[in-house]
Amino acid sequence: MAKRKQPEIDDQIIIYEKTGTYVVKETNEVASYKYYQACWEVPKASLPEGASRRRLTASGRSRAKATADLREKVYEFLASPDSHWNTARTRGATLNRYVERWIKEDLRLDAISETVKRRHIENYRHHIAPFLGDKNIRNISHLEINRLLTHSLLIPRDVPSKIYSGGVRPDVVLSSATRKNVRSTLSKIFSTAAEDGVISKNPMKRVPKVEVEPKNKDNMDEAIKDVKKFMRWMKKNAHVDYCRFLLQLLGLRRAERLGITWDNIHGLDTSSPSIVISQGGGL
Question: How far apart (Å, rounded) are the C-alpha atoms in residues 63 and 16?
Fold first, then answer.
């Protein structure tokens, strides 16, 4: 494969000879050393809107080393200037700052439904920002994200809510289904950041998926057996609430149970007693 030809930029590079200092550990004395700084001015045509000047620099103990390192930086810039500006713009930026832009420029234009967009925004504001929002987006690791999903979100805490008095929903512990949605929001944010060149690696690729715990389903057969045992025990012990519990098991509506009279009960002294409800809807 032929090596890609790089543009000639050496005549555009300026070299400065500089002096630096350091403290000698053994003697605590200040010593000096010489190094070289290579600089390349970004052409005005390549500057983003609002920028008046931008320089790329590299340093080395020799002119050749400084020039070689800068040359690589310049070639990377020329290959993808948009990624460079995204990285420069967010260098040192917190996750909160990046997500603010992400919501306006990426999420708002996404083809997903407005309901899902709102869910992503709420997931971030309530469950991600309190833990990771103030951290530098470039320094957030998969370990921190995994700890958020498997530990931090399982600790009871107060969460803002418009439907609760006082505007706070107290002692929230997120279910596995909600934590799965939070992971989805994080994945969307960091995938976009990686595509923009803001981060070099997507930490979400190393974060395990959140397994949703199955909901407990009532075993009706076992429940019926338990009810029968309970009713037999109440009848045997002549419990005072036997009739009240019995009425609840007859399949009657609440209004029908409350309005029942002895006239509605037939065959009580037989093996097949019955309750007759009038055709008019009353008792």
Answer: 9
